[in-house]
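TOKENISE THE FOLD
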Amino acid sequence: MQRNADPPLAGRRAFILGGTGGIGRHIARALGLRGARLDVHGREGRKLESALAEFREAGIEAEGSAFSLDSLAGTGPLLDRAGAADILVAAWGPFLQKPLHETAPEEWEAAVAFNLALPGALVSAALPGMRSRRWGRILFLGGTRTDGIRGFRTNAAYAAAKTGLGVLAKSIALEYARDGIAALVLCPGFVRTEYLTPETLEGLAAKTPGGSLTDPGVFGDLAADLLCRDPPLWNGGILTADEGLAAW
């Protein structure tokens, strides 16, 4: 009788920033179903408990902790957890929708700190362990249509920070591919999550090619499948996964 093969991520540890809600929760689940042991971060205790219960019910080994982030000064515990990860997923970053002439300095600071600087700091913390193990996978969630340099009328600060993730991914590939480490930016379109109001869902659906938002479970499966690929031919890539969303 032939023994079933181990799941592709068996023995790998995945740290997911923002893994208790939205797209991040679906990516975490998909990674767990492919054999990864999960360490999830969330900002709310109840959502963390709900996510861990869901994962464990599915037979996934999962742990995590919840705390809000007010500045980069409080991210020490996250850096420690990233240092033990084989797979790093940066799935959280606060969205800011304001025209440039209304964007205050503190809003600029938060947008860049949490959407670019924090993912970068997590990478710096994760790389030594990944290099020593000669294997690592890093996934950044970009913003909608931040796969290249373009203008934005109402969310330029957020988009500028998210666009910078492409530099991180390409720099990781350039310097650390020889160590078995690969990085990818995945830019979603409009994904159906619990954070969107019915009015927002309706408005965004009207802008999509098929008239509906992307299923978050499908997006999570795509992300996990890409991270499972060996060799990672996508290393350093910025991949648009928006179902052909046109400019709006």
Remarks:
- The mean pLDDT is 94.
- The CA atoms of residues 108 and 191 lie 25 Å apart.
- Helices lie at 22-33, 45-57, 76-83, 105-133, 156-163, 165-176, 198-205, 216-228.
